Amino acid sequence: MNAASSQERSSAAQAVIAIGVSAVVLGLLALTLYFVDRFDNVLGHGPLPSGASASWAYLGTLLTGGLALLSAAVTLVGVKQAKYVTRQYAWLVYAVVGLPLAVLLFVPLQRYGSEAFLDLPDVLVGVPGRVMVGATLGALFLGGVDLRKVFSRRPQAAAGEDAPTGRGRFTPLAWTVLNSMEEEAKRFDHSFYGTEHLLLALSMEHRSLAVRAMLGMGVDLESLRVQVEGLIGRRGALYTGASGMTRRAQRVIEQASQKARSEGTQIGTGHFLQAISEAREDVSGQLIRQLGVTPERLAGELRRLGPDESV
Which of 32, 50, 147, 200 has its CA 20 to 30 A from that of 282? Predict the structure, then answer.
């Protein structure tokens, strides 16, 4: 068993899961459409009174609402989870489910007394069925929007600061790094952002004191980024059910804050790097120490370079 065949099976499994999610969504939608159409016929149309009793009509009301809710919920939750489980083949769900439903939205509705478009079943050209198709399609695409990122804790909140005053405690480049840290997490489809994302963001801010210090100690930044991305990539597209900074990342930023407070300065990128290098239980700290960025060497290099950036 070689690595290539293992990866191939993994990809095949992802594709099967994506197709399975699509089948479940379409199957439940078909069941809901069938029931909605049948119940609509039972209720009746036209000037004649309905043959359904009040109790049966109310039971049908509950069943219709429940099935509609279940159909949309399975679409929303299933697609959302499939996006993280089948990162490579998530597009299959949108292709298999989304494209036919999107096309169906443009099929003309049937007018009373006229032939159905292309002799399609009544359920596909009637208003009740069309409403269900639209709701399912909306849930499908809403499942691709990560609302957690909209409402996630921002870096200043995770560091224990409120929005108006938190930013002022960081140098401009440190603040840029915090925002880049979250962008790096999004790039890997992570709902959280940790010290690995912070270290990756630090290595990309070439104007920062942290980068100048690492270069001064002979660190190959490209090699560092490759190793960090390798650490992050092995974790896959994780979904933890929560979002924002991890506790370890919060502790690193809190430690950086303490260092800046003891110096009477703003929190800078140098403080971030110091805090990471001292986090012995953290993989990011272990990685940079292996590259020679020990707390002792880093402290000496930061003293040689002078104060952290203020602009």
Answer: 147
- Are 211 and 205 in contact, with CB atoms under 8 Å apart? yes
Query: Is residue 170 within 8 Å of residue 161, measured between CB atoms?
Result: no
Residue 19: exposed, middle, or buried by beta-carbon count in 10 A (0-12, 13-18, 19+)?
Answer: middle
DSSP state of 109: P
The widest CA-to-CA distance across the chain, in whole angstroms, is: 92
Residues of the chain with CATH 1.10.1780.10: 148-305
Reference 84, options 4, 18, 151; nearest CA is: 18
CA distance 270 to 260: 10
> Which range, of 74-88, 123-137, 174-188, 255-269, averages the lowest pLDDT?
74-88
* Axis crossing angle, helix 247-263 with helix 269-278, rounded to the nearest 10: 120
Give the SS3 label for residue 86. Answer: coil
Per-residue pLDDT tens digits for 112-141: 667 778 888 777 787 788 888 888 888 777
How many Å apart are CA 58 and CA 167, to the nearest integer? 56
Q: Which CATH class is domain 148-305?
A: mainly alpha
Question: What would the two tokens of residue 239 be?
Answer: 């979904």
CA distance 84 to 239: 7
Q: Which amino acid is at 110?
A: Q
Nearest alpha carbon to residue 181 among 62, 74, 284: 284
Q: List, in order, residues 6 or more apart from 195 with CB less than 8 Å away.
A: 246, 248, 249, 252, 276, 279, 282, 283, 284, 285
Q: What is the dihedral of CA 165, 175, 287, 6, to 10 degrees?
A: 110
Q: Per residue in 134-177, pLDDT tens?
A: 888 887 777 666 554 444 444 444 444 433 345 678 899 999 99
- With 0-12 / 13-18 / 19 or more C-beta atoms within 10 angstroms meaning exposed / middle / buried, residue 196 is buried
Helices 209-216 + 295-305 axis angle, to 10: 110
